[in-house]
């Protein structure tokens, strides 16, 4: 394979070929799910598990798992982005109940996979957030750990690893320590999405691929030449939600880019570690993430950009600096890679909610249920939100429907929306510039301490303003 090939490893291993026919005639169902990614498929799956008599249909513009669900870094985290903002508002048993729900995500998925015959290379090895490139990362990690303790998380959930413990897990260049959590598994993302679609179809969910929805109105999804009417519509679109005016500015569509090496040698893996296939990230504001794939590759990514107007992006130039700096960062972090070739480069679009806080809601009056804004941590969160939406739609009285990430008023109009353009574009790029400055000063090694501290404070201040 050429070193400048744009291809997604996961979709190359498990091609997104259409399995279900497009919708070509107008029809009706009880619940219409728009989007064949994790959120839509988990919602449809749980609806049919809980209420087999329900008529549920999924409309997917391409093929199931084509979007972010088939292109992500493969971290199945037991948690939500910015979850502690929710937990800090709760006391006593309610907080513990919410924590159990969050940390139980990995076990819930682990139980379903063999039952539904979904082989997605699932390994529950935890995750290491490493301080391994510059001294300020250790301070970042310890500060984060103090915040986790204030939210009620103990040693069993997040613990500090000293230099020796962290080096035993990850043979990075300059390991100083790190935060380890057991609440994470790694997967092959495309295989999970495709397997989940097959499981939902076996339960009786009607799936229509190559069926792009052009317009959403109360109780109806309009396609080219036909429409699907439903009592409840579930737009499960994440970064693509902005194409519909009713959902405009609910989520910010942000890009994330990844690369994957050729399979590494046993000697390289002996030096790099990750023996338990634990996920790993770098304690920096660049939001890095990586895993050791089942076929022995190093998969690594970092948060990308934002396009003016909130446009999605699925095609990337493999020879661009967007990938080059990620490769430089990876090689800086893991010198054992040596001259190992990068064989895959790809990216996709994810959704970010205001205040970086995912949510679920069911607006009975409008007949719409939705969840999202995962901020890049949707592989596990979508399972929890799919269960939540199913219980909300079925009006169950379980504890899931009263969790703090469920909007209590349940009205679409109450969703906090991002400001009109060009404010998000300007804000995002201002914050990215501050991140890049902090990275350049801290990782460069020659900047004075006061400059590194000032860059960190500036980045943190601008980040809080964007929320």
What's the CATH class label of the largest domain? Alpha Beta
Give the CA-based shape.
globular
Structural class: alpha+beta
What is the oligomer described by this structure?
single chain
Low-confidence stretches: none
Query: Distance between termini?
Result: 41 Å
Radius of gyration: 22 Å
Number of strands: 18
Number of domains: 3
What is the CATH topology of the largest domain? FAD/NAD(P)-binding domain
Query: Main beta sheet, described?
Result: 6 strands, mixed
| Corresponding CATH superfamily of the largest domain | FAD/NAD(P)-binding domain
Average of per-residue pLDDT values: 94
Q: Please, how many helices? A: 13
Describe the protein's architecture and organization.
- The chain has 467 residues and is of the alpha+beta class.
- It has three domains: 10-108 and 188-249 and 355-414, FAD/NAD(P)-binding domain, CATH 3.50.50; 122-186 and 253-354, D-Amino Acid Oxidase, subunit A, domain 2 (D-Amino Acid Oxidase, Chain A, domain 2), CATH 3.30.9; 420-467.
- It has helices spanning 9-13, 38-50, 83-87, 92-103, 105-115, 136-150, 163-169, 189-203, 266-272, 321-333, 378-393, 423-444, 449-466; strands at residues 27-34, 56-59, 75-77, 127-131, 159-161, 177-181, 184-186, 206-208, 215-217, 220-222, 227-235, 251-261, 279-282, 288-292, 298-303, 342-353, 359-363, 368-372.
- The strands form five sheets. A six-stranded mixed beta sheet has the order 8-2-1-11-10-9, covered by helices on one side. The chain has a four-stranded mixed beta sheet with strand order 5-6-4-13, sandwiched between helices.
- Helix 5 packs across helix 11 (378-393) and helix 12 packs antiparallel against helix 13 (449-466).
- It is globular and about 65 Å long.
- This is FAD-dependent oxidoreductase.
- Residues 30-392 form the FAD dependent oxidoreductase domain.
- Keywords: Oxidoreductase.
- Pfam families: DAO.
């Amino acid at each position: 394979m050429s070193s400048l090939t744009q291809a997604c490893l996961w979709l190359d291993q498990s091609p997104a070929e259409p399995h279900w026919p497009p919708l070509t005639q107008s029809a009706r169902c009880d619940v219409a799910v728009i989007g064949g990614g994790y959120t839509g498929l988990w919602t449809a799956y749980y609806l049919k598990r809980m209420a087999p008599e329900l008529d549920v249909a999924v409309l997917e513009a391409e093929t199931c798992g084509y979007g972010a669900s088939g292109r992500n870094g493969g971290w199945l985290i037991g948690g939500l982005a910015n979850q502690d903002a929710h937990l800090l508002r709760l006391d006593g048993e309610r907080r513990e109940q919410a924590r159990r729900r969050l940390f139980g995500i990995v076990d819930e998925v682990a139980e379903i996979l063999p039952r539904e015959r979904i082989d997605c290379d699932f390994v529950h090895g935890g995750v290491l957030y490493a301080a391994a490139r510059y001294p300020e990362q250790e301070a970042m990690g310890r500060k984060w750990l103090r915040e986790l303790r204030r939210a009620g998380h103990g040693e069993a959930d997040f613990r500090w690893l000293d230099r020796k413990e962290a080096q035993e897990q990850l043979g990075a260049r300059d390991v100083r320590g790190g935060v380890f959590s057991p609440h994470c598994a790694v997967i092959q993302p495309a295989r999970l999405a495709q397997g989940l679609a097959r499981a939902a179809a076996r339960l009786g969910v009607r799936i229509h691929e190559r069926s792009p929805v052009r317009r959403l109105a109360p109780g109806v999804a309009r396609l080219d030449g036909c429409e699907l009417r439903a009592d409840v519509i579930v737009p499960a679109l994440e970064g693509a939600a902005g194409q519909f005016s009713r959902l405009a500015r609910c989520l910010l569509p942000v890009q994330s880019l990844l690369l994957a090496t050729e399979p590494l040698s046993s000697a390289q893996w002996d030096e790099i570690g990750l023996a338990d296939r634990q996920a790993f990230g770098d304690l920096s504001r660049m939001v890095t993430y990586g895993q050791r794939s089942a076929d022995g590759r190093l998969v690594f990514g970092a948060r990308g950009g934002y396009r003016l107007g909130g446009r999605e992006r699925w095609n990337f130039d493999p020879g661009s600096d967007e990938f080059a700096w990620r490769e430089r960062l990876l090689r800086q972090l893991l010198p054992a890679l040596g001259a190992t070739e990068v064989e895959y480069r790809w990216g996709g679009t994810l959704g970010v909610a205001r205040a970086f806080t995912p949510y679920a809601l069911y607006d009975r009056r409008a007949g719409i249920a939705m969840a999202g804004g995962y901020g890049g941590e949707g592989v596990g969160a979508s399972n929890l939100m799919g269960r939540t939406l199913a219980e909300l739609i079925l009006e169950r009285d379980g504890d899931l429907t009263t969790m703090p990430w469920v909007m209590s008023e349940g009205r679409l109009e109450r969703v906090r929306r991002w400001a009109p353009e060009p404010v998000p574009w300007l804000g995002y790029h201002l914050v990215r510039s501050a991140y890049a400055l902090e990275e350049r000063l801290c990782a460069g090694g020659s900047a004075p301490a006061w400059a590194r501290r000032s860059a960190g404070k500036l980045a943190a201040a601008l980040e809080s303003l964007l929320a």
